[in-house]
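quick q for whoever's on today - can somebody do inverse folding on this one?? i tried earlier but teh output was garbage lol. tokens:
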């Protein structure tokens, strides 16, 4: 006599006695793999200083044009005298970096470390007795003015733009002999006639092409 096969309470047939192979784990979606690669690239760029880290004096020096090249390539030049221990130089590095990125195709940017005795002659030539000390040279190497000490970004941009356009009268510059100290209200009233100087406030310039 045939005996009917028993079924479970759910009405489904019991599973076969032989066990089925385990399912394969799902593969990672393409988006996740791309995101992981992007993160790794970002970490590598940040570690190498290209991922948006604050510009430093070392990075400016690395990208700077050698002085002899700058004086021979027919372009105007900004020469910055600096030192690694100079706090104002460090603070101004991001400003110089931004302006260099904007005008670097038309203007040379040169970095000279005053602790290197190699630049003693240039320090004497431009009367460097405080840093940062920026000298603005035309395409023939003639000085059109200098800025000493802290300076606003707008002042540097306007000077470099004038230099790039071949203008001799730089809006912000200073000279040493005969310079008179301007009061803070005068800077606000006539922002194109004074620059910050850590040795004595703002220095008024009557002739932006003069230098010491």
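ok took a stab at it. sequence:
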């Amino acid at each position: 006599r045939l005996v009917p096969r028993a079924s479970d309470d759910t009405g489904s047939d019991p599973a076969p006695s032989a066990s089925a192979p385990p399912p394969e784990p799902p593969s990672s979606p393409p988006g996740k793999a791309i995101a992981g690669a992007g993160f790794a690239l970002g970490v590598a760029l940040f570690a190498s200083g290209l991922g948006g880290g604050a510009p430093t004096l070392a990075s400016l020096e690395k990208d700077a044009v050698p002085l002899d090249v700058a004086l021979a390539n027919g372009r105007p030049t900004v020469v910055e005298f600096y030192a690694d221990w100079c706090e104002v130089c460090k603070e101004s590095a991001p400003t110089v970096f931004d302006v260099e990125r904007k005008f670097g195709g038309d203007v040379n940017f040169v970095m000279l470390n005053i602790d290197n005795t190699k630049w003693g002659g240039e320090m004497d030539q431009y009367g460097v007795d405080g840093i940062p000390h920026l000298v603005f040279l035309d395409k023939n190497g003639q000085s059109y003015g200098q800025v000493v000490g802290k300076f606003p970004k707008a002042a540097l941009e306007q000077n470099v733009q004038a230099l790039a356009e071949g203008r001799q009268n730089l809006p912000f510059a200073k000279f040493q002999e005969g310079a008179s100290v301007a009061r803070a209200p005068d800077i606000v009233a006539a922002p194109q006639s004074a620059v910050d100087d850590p040795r004595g406030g703002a220095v008024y310039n009557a002739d932006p092409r003069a230098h010491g």
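fwiw Helices lie at 30-47, 57-63, 67-70, 87-103, 120-125, 153-164, 184-189. also Residues 30-47 form the longest helix (18 residues). so keep that in mind when u check it
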